[in-house]
Structure prediction request, 463 residues.
Amino acid sequence: MQKKRVLLYNWTPIEHYKLGGGVAVYIKNLMQYAAENRNDIEFVFLSSGFYYDSDNKRTYIRKEQDFMSFENYTIVNSPIIAPLAFSISTLNRTLSDKVVINEIDTFIKNHGHFDVVHFHSFEGLTSSVLKLKEKYRNIKFFHSIHDYGILCPDIRLWTKRNENCLYSKYKFQCTNCVNNNSPLIFRLVSEASTRSYEYNVPYYELIWNKIIRKYRKILHKYIPGSNRIYTRYRNFNINNINVYSDGELCVSQRVAEIVKANGLKSEKLIVDYIGTLAAEKANYKCLNDPYSEYFTILYMGYTKIEKGFFEYLEAIERIPESEAKNINLIFASKIENESIQRRIEALKSRYHKVIVFDGYSHSDFPKIFSQVNLGICPPLWEDNLPQVAIEMVANGIPVLTSKNGGAHELNNHPDFEYSHHQENNILTIMHNRDLLETYWEYAKKLTTMEEHMDNLIKIWTNS
Prediction:
């Protein structure tokens, strides 16, 4: 097979993959796997919107240190700051920018033949880069939908009223949710430093928010305040994709349903579950004895409303003490809120055991998972495909999920999906431990990196 040369784009520089969340980790793993295991693909990586150079104001592409055996570049001084939340106050630039497009055009022209250009976000640039398809008709242009940034400037479709935007009467009324004031200062800070904004923003953001509160009436004319700009932004992205993209890779079926319902053409959509290193070790049976004396439940991840943490906390607070005394609770979460700490502390008087891993890393998984019978993944937002659910399934932990997002697609057992009142589902499973074993009969096999890479090659070739 002829080697494919693929330009990969994400806003997070590959050397800073820990900053960009799951997408950045995925791309790092993808490139590392290809470097170590494949000779049929050559990646070139490009990022944008992260680095700003006070000594050279023009926008330019800089060669960075290679990652593994692959070339690595970044666009310095992009007129569009990444991530998306930092460019909201200058959203018009994403609708009209030509500078970044010209840089990428020149890059493609000067760096030899590419078979594929694959965007893993449009942050740090603009979806109109897809229009380069008109010039480079022999190159396939793809985009992976890892979040909802093409529809929602906050990328999560989660409102500040703590509602799933898709079911809210305030759907797509973005000015009610988005903090579109602060990012103006981010640009000033970023351009004054060659380092990333992560070292500078918190202090300046506090000052800027004070200024906004005091001088809001004066500054109003400089601040976008209409939902029309966000409507234009959504329509702009949807149109560019529908006209120019060779394929939109959706990381779960639910993602495909959402973007199709909001304007993307169904023929553009390809459900492609991402590859994960965790899949290599999955054997699809319970890690621990399903019939252990005490029933152990694990919540792993952020203690945020949209993650479903508080709904879960309320559910376990409702479980009667007569049942709770036979249950162990494990929280693998960074607990920073005193109110949460008090509520977890109060559970200790009712439950057999309550254990908190205050933050964790992959090296802690054997210890965290060692007694767990049931994992909980209860997002209220449309979490595309939560990594915590993948990790638990890969390690032999059945997972009770909500219907939101893609987590429930890992298993279609009816007793492991809930809408409300998780305590009923938890107690049903606890009193019918055979469900933990039959869970695996309904499990969707996780995608290995090899399977994922093979699938990407097919998509890039045949779409």
In short: Residues 201-219 form the longest helix (19 residues). The chain has a mean pLDDT of 89. Residues 278-442 form a domain with the Rossmann fold fold (CATH 3.40.50.2000). The radius of gyration is 23 Å.
